[in-house]
């Protein structure tokens, strides 16, 4: 997101002073055939893994032992995201990861999480 302010002389817009807005993370929950699906878009890091964990717990609400994470929109994941995926795999019988691509898929493969998680799409 780019912030801008109007230039008083000619009404044109220019970038606002100050640091850029952080990319952030968008979390969306849905259900498909009785299974919770959590869609993540943006960047998963230390600042928002708690929000993802809370979204998963809310979606599970003690009624499912399987969860799907759709990572199609996820552009970045740091070590706290890796720790989150590992913790989920230990709490939930089956964690399916859909549409992981690029750097996120590479992190999953290099860390060996592709042997623990079910990768799809």
Furnish the topology, listing elements before pairings.
Layout: E1 4-6, E2 13-15, E3 25-32, E4 35-44, H1 49-60, E5 66-77, H2 79-91, E6 94-98, H3 102-110, E7 118-120
Parallel strand pairs: 4-5, 5-6, 6-7
Antiparallel strand pairs: 1-2, 3-4
Task: Give structural notes.
The chain has helices at 49-60, 79-91, 102-110, and strands spanning 4-6, 13-15, 25-32, 35-44, 66-77, 94-98, 118-120. It is of the alpha/beta class and 121 residues long. It has a single domain (23-120), classed as Transcription Regulator spoIIAA (2-Layer Sandwich). The strands form two sheets. A five-stranded mixed sheet has the order 3-4-5-6-7. It has a two-stranded antiparallel sheet with strand order 1-2.
Question: What characteristics describe this protein?
Answer:
globular, 121 residues, alpha/beta, 3 helices, single chain, disordered N terminus, Transcription Regulator spoIIAA
CATH superfamily: STAS domain
Shape: globular
Arithmetic mean pLDDT: 85
Classify the beta-strand content into a percent band.
Answer: 35-45%
Instruction: Give the C-level CATH assignment.
Output: Alpha Beta
According to DSSP, the number of beta strands is 7
Multimeric status of the protein: single chain
In the predicted model, the low-confidence regions spanning at least 5 consecutive residues are 1-9
Main sheet? 5 strands, mixed
Number of domains: 1
